[in-house]
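Before a colleague's protein record goes any further, I have to sign it off. I want your independent view on whether this chain really folds as the tokens say. The record follows directly below this note.
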Amino acid sequence: MSESKHDLEGHMEKNSSCIVSPGWKFWKMRRYVVATMAFFGFFTIYALRVNLSIAIVAMTENKTVVYENGTVTLEQEFPWDSVVQGYILSSFFYGYITTQLVGGWFAMRMGGKKLYGLGVAATAVLTLMTPLAANMGMFALIFLRILEGVFEGVTYPCIHAVWSHWAPPLERSRLATLAFTGSYAGTVVSMPACAILAELFGWPSIFYVFGIFGLFWYSLWVVLIAEKPSEDPLISDEELRYITQSLGDTNEKNIKYPWRSIVTSMPVWSIVVAHFSENWGFYTLLTQLPKYMKDILDFDLAKTGFMAALPYLAMSITLALSGQLADWFLVRGILNVTQVRKFFNCGAFIAQTVFMMGTAYATSTTVSVICLIMAVGLGAFAWAGFSVNHLDIAPQHASVLMGIGNTFATLPGIVSPILSGYVVTTPVSDIYTYFPL
């Protein structure tokens, strides 16, 4: 690809109508096997990421303790207040932010498939060590979570390196959103599952179960998935020819990144801003929703896990739908690529704003939950906008562009839990003591 700014920002849809997708059965398409395994990869990493949001509720809840002399008291296994919990929950993102750009760069050098799998596997191993770290103290737990973030940080940039070889232009939305749906499906399943595990077997079981699951996924990923279609022994000649013709040359050897064009590109910065905005709301809810459900809406721990998962259930459904709908508009020629990305992205943001305001002013538990479900669910349509746009504007550089965008989009994960910890324990008039203007 040329290094000029014009070529970087050029015509996103120029090859989109050249090849028509063949109507093969789903299970005979190897690119959809890749997407399905990527789905379960994101399922795994989000289960490993959010498990602490539920576990920390069990770790810090007041429990009745009866002493030998008959004294009855309430004690916490880990006496961490909301501020300390905010630092613990945000520590993951201190590591996560460091490997976004590096992950995208290495993915194009060593292969997106390899690095993606290693990122998930390393996070799973560290998750198995979480109970040990927690019992060693707050700082040991924070350090472990930072390491988890370092390894998990490569996964999003890596998957764009995978799609640069596997995703034909007219199927980018559906393949990418199918994979990204795993993030929310993992949240949906892990939140109630973590609550049940904590109730039945104690909070350490949360980390053991999902850590083992992560290693099991990695073994399947290594065996079933190839780096490129040309290296897949199970791909049909028809599918290989279709992917090759629609993508053209995807050889990344000796690739040169047009850094000046990238950092001065308005489309690139538009994607970055959209990604940052989406993640601010997402990470705030991801880390704080279980506490909100338990402390404000007064749900018990088991119910908290199920109710906190409902918005992400809605999102996992609408995310898959958004990818199909976006590609339908493109295939039918109703909208071009630019229009699809803008309409889906901005429409989702407006819907999120309306329903989050509704949550703030809701006067009943039912209305609050409904507004949260609608806000998170409709927000999924934004992912058929900004999250695929890297592949539209510069397919060969998509993993690096995703790394740049996700670096900025990780900042909300660091700031939001800490800020929320202060806000919910501090009068508004005193917040300026911590965050002076």
